[in-house]
Structure formats: C-alpha cells, structure tokens
Amino acid sequence: MGVRCAESFFGGFPLVTSTGAVKTGDVVDGAPNGQWGRSAALVAVAVILAGVVPVTLVGQIEDVGRSDAWIFTLSIIVWGGIRLAWLIVSGAPRLFDFFFWMFCYIFMGIAPTVQIRSGVTSRTTPGIDEGLYVPTALLVCAGLLTYEVFRAVWIGRERRRATGERSGLVEGGEVIAQVDRSRTLLLVGFGLLASAYFLASVGPAALLGSREASFDARNAAWPDPAVRSIMYALAIYPLLVGAGALAQLRRGARGLPIARWYLAGLVACVVVLLLIVNPVGSARYTFGTVAFALICYAGAMLTPQRVRIALAGTLGAFLFLFPLADAFRSDEVNLTRNGFFGEYMGNPDYDAFWQVANGFSFWVDGLVIPLRQILGSALFWVPRSLWADKPTDTGILLAQYRGYSFDNLSAPLWAELLVNGGLIALIVGFALVGIGLRFMDTRLLLSFASGGLWSIVGAIFPVYMTILMRGSLLQATGAMAVAVACVLVIRSRPSRPGAAQLE
Q1: Neighbour count for residue 392 (Cβ, 10 Å)
Q2: Mutual orientation of helices 352-364 and 413-450 as an angle, nearest 10°?
Q3: What's the mean pLDDT in 202-230?
C-alpha cells in the first residue's frame, strides 16, 4: 500500500510495451522480484543522498551560530535526496524533474547549508544581512513546496485522463512529431556554415585555451552581449539538434549506403561541436548540455538500466567533476581542492541562495517594477542601440543594487521571480514550473520509447534548464530561443499511432 501511494505521488515506474505504449505505475523489470530489488536499491540510494550526506555535513562543518536557516536548507538536502533517489532507481527518464531537483539539492541544499554553518558565504555576495537568512530559506522552501503541490495536481489530471481513456470517455492517442529529412539536412548545412564563421571569427586556438581566453575572443569579435550570445548559440545548437535528427534518420534508414551517409554527417557534427564546446575552453553548463545530449543520442535513455546509470553518473559529475572543471577558468590551472564540503565555502559558483536574499531585499525595499526583467528577457533580441533603457541581467541588477564591484553573478529562478513581482510571482511561477515540467516529462516517456522530435527535446532542454534555473534569464534566453527554433525547423507532420498512448 505504501509503495503504491509513493508511486501515485512520484509518478510511477514506466513500462514501454512492444507496441510503444507507456504505462505508468507498472513494474519495469521482468523478474518477479524486480519490485523488491528496486525497493532495496531505492532505500540504499536514499540513505546515501538523504542520510549520509546531510549527517556528514553537519558532523564535519561546525556551526558558528550565525543563523538557524541551515535547518531549512538541510531539509532541502533530505527531500531532494529522496526525490533524486526515486528518479534514479525507477529508471524512468523524467529528466526535467531530475535536473530540477539536482540543482536544488546542490545549489539550494548543500551549498547554503555549508556556507551558513561555517559562516563563509560566497565571496562575490558579501555583507548579506543575517536577518535575511531565515526568510530567504523559507522563500526557497515555499517555491519547492508549490512546485511539488502543482506537479501532484497535474499527476492527478493525467491519471483521471488515463482512466477516462480506458473507460472510453476520452479519445486516446498521442500525436508524435517526427523529424523531417530535408529540413534536417538544411539545418546541418546551416549549422556547419555558422560554425565555420564562428571559428574563423574567434580562432580555434582561443577555444582550446582557458575559459577567460575563449570569452575574451568572443567579446572581441562581437562586443554587443545580445549579438555575442546569438552567434555562439548559432555555432552550437543547429549542429546539436541536427546531430540528434541524423541519429534518428540513421536508425530508420533503408539501406546501408544511406545509413553510412547519415553516420558521416553525424560524426562531422560531433567533431565540430566538440571543437567549439570542449571541457577546457567552454562554460561548464554549456559543455554539460552538449555532452548529455550526445549521450542521449547514443541510446542512454532506451532502457531503465541505462537511465539509472546515466542519471547516477550525471549527479556524480555535478557533485565531483563540476568543481574541478573550474580549474580551467584561467591560464593558471589550479587543481588543489579543499575537501568535498570545503569546496562550497566562499565559492562564487554557489552564490544562488544569497542572490535570492538580495532579490528578497530588492522586493522589500519597494524597487520592483512588475514584469520588467521578464520583458527584457523576452525581448533579448532587441539591441540596446534601439532600447536605451533595456533591462540588464538580473544578476547585474542585484549586484548594482548592493553596490558590488563584481557583477557577473547568478540570478536563480527564485530571484528572477521576486524582482518581477515579489511573493505572488514566486508562487505563480513555481506552480507553472511544476505543471510544465511534469507535462514535458510525460511526453519524454513516449518519445524515448518510440523516437520522434521530443526525444531530441529531452536530450537538450532538461540539462539546459540548469542554466535557466541558475540565471540570469536574459543571458540564457538567447541560446534557448535558437535551440527551440532549430527543433521547430526539423519538425515534420506528426503521426498518430493507435497504440502510443497513456493507459
């Protein structure tokens, strides 16, 4: 009974049948004891993520008594660990939910708990009023609670719809959009030309150096931030989307020669992509987006076991490799680390919680102009020469508000919503996120099983969501718009298979 209740909340285990149908709430493993084995694995992983990690953190990081807010952020570690354990062990490719909770587990759980207990906060956000610690933690928890409540509401809607389909009250059948061959080839050709222009403008040597050198080269080629963002995105996402489409076309090719041509195009896309986006000269989030998409194209989401390995590996990479990759930010490579939890002390990469505090303070001071920052993100493509008072990145806005000398700061989703409309915007925003991510994850279950456009969406956008959640939105929307446009370009007319439906 307890297991079934948990399945009802978390979304159940998916079962892809031979006809392509996806059933939620059924057992994936064929072995009679598969349910017991998964339950034991769930307990083991949950004990590590939601038990060992927080207990070890509290034991190793002495509380200096600055605030009790760490109790709330510690609860995020516990609940986030349980959610991540379920997502990993279930073997369901609910990638949007996974990346959402992975971000929260690390950036709103582990990092602020370490920094609050140790008293060593992010050095790029100094002077946060200690009276803001607890309200900020409560705001973060309020956003997460809203996400979970409205996600559960949408799960209930899906189950009512599935019941209606079985009883004949609702017409079943999911429309599955495929990729168009001609449009895919045009997109790949455009992507290769755009990448060649990018390489000629920036130079391959700069891309293979440090991240600072790579950014300086892009800045010299395109001084306007909006233009620079779009040019960088055009060099990446047409090829990344095109590679996924070529992989699908290759699997469905009739005849070995045609399949080989598709493979040659796929290899060319990957080589050029990894030249432009590499782990040394590229931002970690951008490289992670490309790397995860290529893993998905290689079939990482096709079986529950592969899903488990991919998700566990991704979480491990964010916990252990993400901090190490910061060593390549400048030409002076520094691989010296301060232990697992010590890595979070004072680290500017983990300023998200403190930027939420600044966003809250910004709202309390009555400085919010409703929806102004969102409007700037939506109209990212308008140059500042035509819009003189165009909003800056929210991270920069908050840095200027606090008088920081360093303004290249994050602006996590909580902060973005607060500066656009305060608490009401935060609640409404996370309600929409909870519904939207659940809706998209349900589509991914169908697409990873049977192919189609949404399998490309699932390979790229869930991991890209970590960039959106960290912010600022204005920095991220340009690349996202280019990626969305590329997906729409290769979309063919959808088909409606009779069996591909939620049962």
Answers
A1: 18
A2: 130
A3: 78
Phi then psi for 323, rounded to 5 degrees? -65, -35
Q: Is the pLDDT of residue 54 over 60?
A: yes
CB 402 within 8 A of CB 503: no
Q: Are 490 and 245 in contact (CB under 8 A)?
A: yes
DSSP-derived secondary structure letter, 48? I
Least reliable range by pLDDT among 64-73, 221-230, 260-269, 415-424: 221-230
Interatomic CA distance for residues 153 and 158, integer angstroms = 9
Most distant CA atoms of the chain, gap in Å:
69
Per the DSSP assignment, residues forming a β-bridge with 502 are: 22
The larger pLDDT score, comparing residue 502 to residue 225, is at: 225
The residue type of 470 is R
Domain count, the chain: 1
Domain enclosing residue 347, as ranges = 1-503
pLDDT tier, 440 (very low <50, low <70, confident <90, very high otherwise): very high
CA angle 4, 9, 11 (to 5 degrees): 85
The encoded tokens of residue 257 equal 């020669």
Q: What is the C-alpha R_g of the chain?
A: 23
Query: Rounded to whole angstroms, how far apart are CA atoms 138 and 127?
Result: 20
- Residue 182 CB contacts under 8 Å (≥ 6 apart), including other chains: none
Determine the length of the chain. 503
Q: What per-residue confidence (pLDDT) applies to 28?
A: 37
Q: Which residues, 6+ apart, have CB-to-CB distance to 414 below 8 Å? A: 139, 140, 143, 356, 359, 426
The pair of three-digit structure tokens given for residue 397, joined into one six-digit string: 């806005």
How many angstroms separate the CA atoms of 292 and 322, rounded?
14
Q: What dihedral angle (degrees, nearest 10) is formed by the CA atoms of 450, 454, 460, 462?
A: -100
Structure-derived torsion over alpha carbons of residues 159, 165, 170, 172, reported in degrees to the nearest 10:
110
DSSP for 101-168? Answer: HHHHHIIIIIHHHHHHHHS---TTS----GGGHHHHHHHHHHHHHHHHHHHHHHHHHHHHHHHHHHTT
Task: Supply angle C-alpha 130, 348, 468, rounded to 5.
Answer: 100
Q: How far apart are CA 398 and CA 127, in angstroms?
A: 13
| Residues 6 or more apart whose Cβ sits within 8 Å of residue 120 | 345, 346
CB-neighbour burial class of residue 439 (10 A; exposed 0-12, middle 13-18, buried 19+): middle
User: Which of 265, 246, 230, 233 has the alpha carbon at shortest distance from 180?
Assistant: 246
If DSSP codes are grouped into helix, strand and coil, which group holds residue 352?
helix
Compute the mean pLDDT over every residue in the chain, rounded to the nearest whole number: 83
Q: Considering the chain, what percentage of its residues have pLDDT values greater than 90?
A: 48
